[in-house]
Amino acid sequence: MEASAKQMMSLQAFPSITEDEFEAACKALEDRSFDKLDDTDWLSVRWSGKDLTIKQRRAIHSLEQKALDEDGEVDGLAEDSCPAEILLSKPLSESLIVDFSITLSPVYRVPVLYFSRQHTSNDSRLSLDQVYDWLIPWTSHTPLRNTGVMGGISMGYHPVSDQPAFFIHPCNTPEALSALRPGANLTPEGYLILWLGLIGSSVGLHIPSELLA
């Protein structure tokens, strides 16, 4: 069956996804990203045949920048009730490139998100504290630390590159996806976009609006 036909078919057994459906979804997102990334923080989207890689340029924000909104509140809390370490942290103006990789879990039959800092000779690997401080939105700190519906952050070896990387454990992903109750005609690409909105957003990997237009 041609890839375009697979991309249009509905999923067979949501919230799971088959290998063929996963491949079709990744190829579709790669195609969708072609010539649409110039004004986004996504630098590239590539399907290798085994994993979908997304490079993202990420501004390094302090906890203060992430937590305080325009009204001076932290996730609905008044500024005077915020922890001191949030309010006293200093803004940072640096950026880094994060390598995200999406693979298919052979056990849970759902995508798994791996991520690491783009490695160069001058860069050290991210620590878990840096991951929480720089990459994860404040609203996701508690759910991830407590292994909530999104699953906790673990360190392991990437199944394709065999390099150490952080990943969001997929044990609770099927339940979290089921709670979203998508329509019966969900395509593989629609599934991947839904999954990215749930899991990717928990580590700041938001789909650029240019890709959804």
TrEMBL record:
<keyword id="KW-0653">Protein transport</keyword>
<dbReference type="GO" id="GO:0032446">
    <property type="term" value="P:protein modification by small protein conjugation"/>
</dbReference>
<dbReference type="GO" id="GO:0015031">
    <property type="term" value="P:protein transport"/>
</dbReference>
<dbReference type="Pfam" id="PF03987">
    <property type="entry name" value="Autophagy_act_C"/>
</dbReference>
<dbReference type="GO" id="GO:0000422">
    <property type="term" value="P:autophagy of mitochondrion"/>
</dbReference>
<dbReference type="InterPro" id="IPR007135">
    <property type="entry name" value="Atg3/Atg10"/>
</dbReference>
<keyword id="KW-0808">Transferase</keyword>
<protein>
    <recommendedName>
        <fullName>Ubiquitin-like-conjugating enzyme ATG10</fullName>
    </recommendedName>
</protein>
<keyword id="KW-0833">Ubl conjugation pathway</keyword>
<dbReference type="GO" id="GO:0005829">
    <property type="term" value="C:cytosol"/>
</dbReference>
<dbReference type="GO" id="GO:0000045">
    <property type="term" value="P:autophagosome assembly"/>
</dbReference>
<keyword id="KW-0813">Transport</keyword>
<dbReference type="GO" id="GO:0061651">
    <property type="term" value="F:Atg12 conjugating enzyme activity"/>
</dbReference>
<comment type="similarity">
    <text>Belongs to the ATG10 family.</text>
</comment>
<keyword id="KW-0072">Autophagy</keyword>
